[in-house]
Design brief:
Elements lengths: L8 E3 L5 E3 L5 H15 L4 H9 L20 H17 L6 H6 L6 E3 L5 E3 L4 H7 L2 E3 H8 L3 H9 L5 E4 L2 E5 H20 L2
Helix pairs in contact: 1-3, 2-3, 6-7
Amino acid sequence: MDSTDLLDSYRLISGAVVDLRQVPDAARLFLSDLALRLAQGQGYDELVGRVLHPKSVVYGGMSPLAAAAQELPAVRVARDLVYRAGVAEGAIKPSPTEQEALPRGLRTARDERGALREVEADTATALTREQIVTVGEAMNLLGITRQAVINAVRGGRVRGEQHGKLWLLAREDVLRYRAERVERSNRRGGAR
């Protein structure tokens, strides 16, 4: 098991940060895998099934129905990830403040026919309203590769956090970095 695949901490939709360093590696790996599945768009029902399975490692041997199990750090994170998947599919209606805290790709609503649609239709405008963006959103916004985005984070040009294989970036830094890239490009073009 690669230690870079393990989550050390996780920010719940409420904003609270859950420290996972004392959680067994098997549960941390399970959470990293769950976060990756969510990012890849895996369905709410499938994620619920994984988390609520009686032998799921997040419960540390407790029953999923035990009240004490609900306070375990791994369970809190797993429930948050499942909640986000439910919101993404429209199975759960978030509060207005939770809706604003969700990454753009998870912000959906049902239209008058009951079909799912994204809350924000204009990609460029929607990105500018988010506090965080994913690497994929940053790639689209910047017009660069995934590795180039990650290099910008590692180089200190964009603030970001890595949670297993999932990266969350500061929206304002991505937008600032885009403006700097455009400015550099304009200067090079004007010097010719």
